[in-house]
UniProtKB/TrEMBL annotation:
Pfam families: Pribosyltran, PuR_N. GO terms for molecular function: DNA binding. It comes from the Bacteria. Coiled coil: none annotated. It comes from Falseniella ignava. This is Pur operon repressor. GO terms for biological process: regulation of DNA-templated transcription. Residues 10-79 form the Bacterial purine repressor N-terminal domain.
Length: 288
């Protein structure tokens, strides 16, 4: 390298760098100038590189690359899961649910081992994010503690902040807002709260949780969103085993619908599994 001259990467080097940079920053708008400065190249070179990257990503079903014109424009990588892979994720989840002892007291379904599997949780999170990718989500919210890992990943893929409500009275030094909710596990009235600094009025919130049956926890989070005068984008859960007289009053999407069927021969309840409503949802671009 000649002294005083910056290294100028070859095109294949630029493509690798740009691709990795975008994948590491899902749903974030990256200005062309970022690549021009780092790679010591012209805007036309970046534009040509992005055209090829966009084509390869589409062909290999790696997600969607969108470019936006103008001085404040740039490029965004949306980690959208292809419909075929979406079904594969749903079927893999049903396969995992069909193994082991799943039915707990009160007809709740054990998901602990699934939510502790980093690979499947990452795939579930990307699938959830895919369905809300154009909804301009500002915050992904969950309840302590089962949904935290999943909701954190969904927030990352949506480039949104992650927040979680706590039950009971916390020791936070910040001011909080709280609502009452009916605990689905024990059918008792509890209280959940969120720090004032976590959410602002008019912010768009996606609620993510692991499981829904009676709907009390999700309804509590919805009430908490309203208490902040924020806007609810949707509610998305991994599994649903709805109590028909309560949950159906809530609008939500699920990956897997779980029903209990009594086996007369074994005298035990068994799971009947089907793909959930999330697979019927279509997401269309709404970004200006």
């Amino acid at each position: 390298m000649v002294a005083g001259h910056r290294y100028k990467p070859k095109r294949n080097e630029r493509i690798v760098y740009i691709s990795q940079y975008l994948v590491d920053r899902p749903s974030q708008l990256v200005n062309y100038q970022t690549f021009m400065d780092h790679l010591n190249c012209a805007k036309t070179s970046v534009s040509e590189d992005l055209s090829l990257i966009k084509l390869v990503f589409e062909q290999q079903r790696l997600g969607t690359i969108k470019t936006f014109p103008g001085a404040s424009g740039g490029v965004v990588y949306y980690p959208i899961v292809h419909p075929e892979e979406q079904r594969q994720i749903g079927e893999k989840l049903m396969e995992m649910l069909s193994k082991g002892h799943r039915i707990l007291q009160g007809n709740y379904i054990y998901l602990g081992d699934i939510l502790q599997n980093p690979n499947i949780v990452d795939r579930i999170a990307r699938l959830m994010a895919s369905r809300y990718i154009y909804e301009q989500v500002d915050a992904v919210m969950t309840m302590e503690s089962n949904g935290i890992g999943l909701a954190t990943l969904v927030a990352r893929y949506l480039d949104a902040k992650f927040i979680f409500a706590r039950t009971g009275k916390t020791t936070s030094r910040e001011a909080t807002r709280s609502v009452e909710f009916v605990s689905g596990s024990y059918h008792k009235v509890g209280r959940m709260e969120l720090e004032e600094s976590q959410l602002e009025a008019k912010e768009r919130v996606l609620i993510v949780d692991d499981f829904i049956r009676n709907g009390g926890t999700c309804q509590g989070m919805i009430d908490l969103v309203k208490a902040f005068e924020a806007k609810l984008v949707g509610v998305c859960v991994v599994g649903e085993n709805p109590a028909p007289d309560i949950v159906r009053t809530l609008a939500f999407d699920s990956l897997v619908s779980i029903n209990l069927a009594f086996n007369e021969e074994s005298r035990q309840y068994e799971l009947e599994l089907a793909l959930g409503s999330l697979f019927e949802k279509k997401s269309e671009p709404t970004i200006d």
